[in-house]
Predict the structure.
Amino acid sequence: MEIEVKIRGLMMDPSSGTPIIILKDVNSETMLPIWVGAYEANAIALEIEKISPQRPMTHDLLRNVIIEMGANVERVVVTELRDNTFFALIIMKDRAGASVMIDARPSDAIALALRVDCPIFVNEEVIQASKNTVTSGEEEEGTSGSEDEWPDIIGEAGDLPM
């Protein structure tokens, strides 16, 4: 089952300095952290904050190519968590109305979703697998997982606009 999510925040992991996207279930308080690269986090932050670069960035270029080819992005789905790596699909319709699924990193899929204003979903199994990973990691490291450990949220405290 797919769960619709919104971007709740973009923050830095205090222990590694790696950016994290926090996705929140639109119907509950469940959240999913996804660690991403600095460039992808920057692309997401620019779109969240509605900052337009002078020239198109990679995700803007991808959006422009999709539109010019007559396709549209229907949604993106974080489909799997395997060996601590998240996987995603960009689901589109081509000009003829045929469904097209493109493999993507979640960070790229989310950056594109923001630019085309389409919904973001996560497979329920991914959320469960992530909870199991976080729980076992917390037990091994002895961390409490308190919110005090996650400073530097980019954007507003509430759900960020898409």
Observations:
- The helical segments are 38-48, 58-68, 106-116, 124-141.
- The longest helix spans residues 124-141.
